[in-house]
Amino acid sequence: MHTAVVIAAALFLPLADTAFCQAQLQPAKEQVKALVSVGQNDLTVGRVSEAQASCDAALKLDPENEAAKTCIRQAAARLIDQDLESADAKLLVGDKKDAIALASRWTGGFAGQSQQARARDILKRARSIGVVDVLKLLFPDWLRHFLLTVITLAVLGLLLLLARLLWREWKRGEWYGSLTNTTRWNMHPLKEETASGEQTGLATDLVLDALARAGHELGLPIWEPRLLLLRPTPPAKYEPAIISEFLSKEAESLRLSPRADDLCLEWKLHDVRLNDAIQNLQFKTSKGIDIGSVLRFLMSMLQWFNAGEPVISGTARTAGEKSITLHLAAHGGRVKSVAVAASTDIATGIDAMQLSAERVAFKFLFRMRYPEMTNDQIDGFSSLRQGATLFAQFAGTAPGMGEDATTRTSSLETAAFNFSFFRASIPPHCIPGCGRQGGSSLQITDELRQAVLLAEGVAHALVGSEKEQMRAIDCFRQLQDFPGSEKTEPLRRQAAYNETSMTGAVHPRR
């Protein structure tokens, strides 16, 4: 019986171990299957690293599991594809070195045939030499960056210069003036050349004042002579020395000054302004930035940008004791360059600085309006205007006494000189403005010339000295011999009457 029991036990033990092993392997297979399933899902969504880790874990549990092996192979293929895609991307951006390093790993070994072919194609393209590669060899990175910076700055500079050119043309008046009838002038203070060297600014103020008034004043008649007869007997101290009718409406109008409608219009095309000055600001921000330095830098940039805009500048020479001379220069406007000067002798009762400022402003406007006119002609017109103004102011006044008499005499002498200068600057054969298209409003007629000659003779006669009386008689005789039409006959008769009134004190005409 014991023998039977032993035999039965020996037969039962192997069957028990097999059942036990099968009971132990059943959960491991389920775990491998689960890991493989997770790995397949990770591959589907593109998580290759996670899929590879899951498949490796499944293969360690069951090295003979075909599903785990397949999962491992698919994960490896995906990793190879990622390397090749990265190599393609680096090749596109020009990183050939890294592209070759990635692609060369998969020209053989575990890569598939298609992957090996793709890797070799990447290597072929990466090792080819094109124009870009040659340029990179010739121009290293630092040189390319330098050249790119230079080109960028050059383009920005050209754009800034173009903007500056357009701005200059706009401010000059080529376009801006056409739209608004204004050219903005930047007025620099006149440099005063005085004995003390002091800069008072008086000359600048007088020129600005004259420019502001000249446009309106030039549109008005300065003087219309009607009757200029010397009294036959010496007048009393309280009586004027001439019989005159300056504003008579019965006689035909005769202007002693040229029509200045065009000059008035020209002045409306200009707007003078002084420079803006920056004060030294003595404060800083919380960060230590000097506000004054920043503003000065910005103003320097603005001055550079506006360089070449219309500018008026000049000098005032007052160092001498005989005369005052003002020089005025302008450039950048419609007339690209203008330079005029005016000088007035210093005399008792005459503001030489004021007269010079008015004269230089008048000549400046003439030059802007009539650029083809000669300097002599412009000087002649300015002398005519100044002489007519002084003559109209003092010719009809009583001789007076003391300082008043001195002022009257010096003013009349200046008026006579200006009349004479006008006749010498614009001779009878000269027609100013004849070359202008459409003609000119500054027509010098016989009536104007004879009226100036009559006024010059009367101015000399009113001064009273023997020398001036001789000059007056000479003017009257020239006027009588002046050829003219019936329209100017009254002027020649006045000259004959004035000569007759004076010959009793001097000598009769032969």
Question: In words, what does this structure look like?
Answer:
This protein is an alpha/beta fold. The protein has helices at 2-45, 48-61, 66-92, 96-103, 113-127, 131-138, 141-172, 176-180, 202-217, 261-268, 291-305, 352-369, 375-394, 402-425, 446-463, 466-480, 489-503; strands spanning 183-187, 191-193, 228-230, 242-244, 270-274, 311-317, 323-331, 337-345. The strands form 2 sheets. Strands 1, 2, 5, 6, 7 and 8 form a 6-stranded mixed sheet that branches. Strands 3-4 form a two-stranded antiparallel sheet. Strand 6 and strand 7 (323-331) form a beta hairpin. Helix 1 (2-45) packs antiparallel against helix 2 (48-61) and helix 16 packs antiparallel against helix 17 (489-503). It is rod-shaped and about 155 Å long. It starts with a helix and ends in a 7-residue tail after the last helix. The model is unreliable at 1-13, 15-25, 433-441 and 505-510 (pLDDT under 50).
